[in-house]
Design brief:
The chain has six helices and 18 strands. By secondary structure, the chain is of the alpha+beta class. The strands form four sheets. Strands 3, 4, 5, 8, 9, 11, 12 and 15 form an eight-stranded mixed sheet that branches. A five-stranded mixed sheet has the order 6-18-17-13-14, with no helix packed on it.
């Protein structure tokens, strides 16, 4: 049998200070994992498990360049996040066992077509078109877990055109990295190449063409992306 056409290679993320790339297999994302952000989204519910959604690997975009303003939206938002890169397989692991699956961490930016997401939520529809689109999962270089250390009170922040818009500590997450991996591994066979976007602090807001977004997490390589004109 012959394939009718070739598919592009899987996206790959550089490892900081190494001549190595992390090939992306899947992208998992967590919704409303900081209490202040949940409140600004109008969510005051008590949740027993994380809110999961996915993005296609084709949504992954390496930081450092210019991306066009997304199509089909008039209200696209930035969401700064810690990203976890999985380097070992796991299934039904405990939160304590989960750390052994982590290869490293990176700064990430989850772009959201908020108008499409809100319209879908109002009708009880999935969030797919609001969350999963080209360049919607911006990511910087991955720092190995051993070099970063334990996830704790590290500062996470985002600047829009030089002004700080989001600022929190990673310890403000409702669900810790270990708890997120444990929950995800109860739903999927977690595997090398999986990325987990762990949620965003309060302060999300709209972007426009010409904006410069700069994100940082203490101990990781920062990210920068410029928003170009819509195609």
């Amino acid at each position: 049998m012959t394939l009718l056409f070739d598919l592009p290679p899987a996206p790959a993320v550089p490892l900081l200070g190494e001549d190595a790339l992390f090939p992306v297999r899947r992208v998992f994302c967590v919704g409303r994992n900081y209490e202040a952000h949940a409140r600004e989204m109008g969510d005051t519910s008590v949740r027993e498990t994380p809110i999961w959604f996915t993005k296609a690997p084709s949504a992954v975009c390496l930081a450092g360049g210019t991306i066009p303003y997304p199509p089909g939206t008039e209200n696209c938002h930035y969401e700064m996040e810690l990203v976890v890169g999985i380097g070992a397989p796991g299934f039904r692991v405990s939160a304590e066992e989960a750390q052994a699956l982590v290869l490293g961490y990176a700064c990430g930016l989850d772009l959201t077509r908020r108008d499409l997401q809100n319209a879908a939520k109002a009708k009880g529809y999935p969030w797919d078109t609001g969350k999963d689109f080209e360049n919607a999962a911006v990511i910087g270089p991955i720092t190995r877990a051993g070099a970063f250390g334990a996830v704790g009170a590290q500062r996470i922040a985002l600047r829009q055109n030089g002004a700080v818009k989001q600022e929190a500590a990673l310890s403000d997450m409702i669900w810790s990295v270990g708890e997120l991996i444990a929950d995800l591994s109860s739903l999927y066979h977690v595997a090398p190449g999986d990325l987990i976007y762990t949620g965003t602090p309060a302060g999300v807001g709209p972007i426009v063409a010409g904006d410069v977004l700069e994100g940082e997490i203490a101990g990781l390589a920062g990210i920068r992306v410029e928003i170009g004109e819509a195609e």
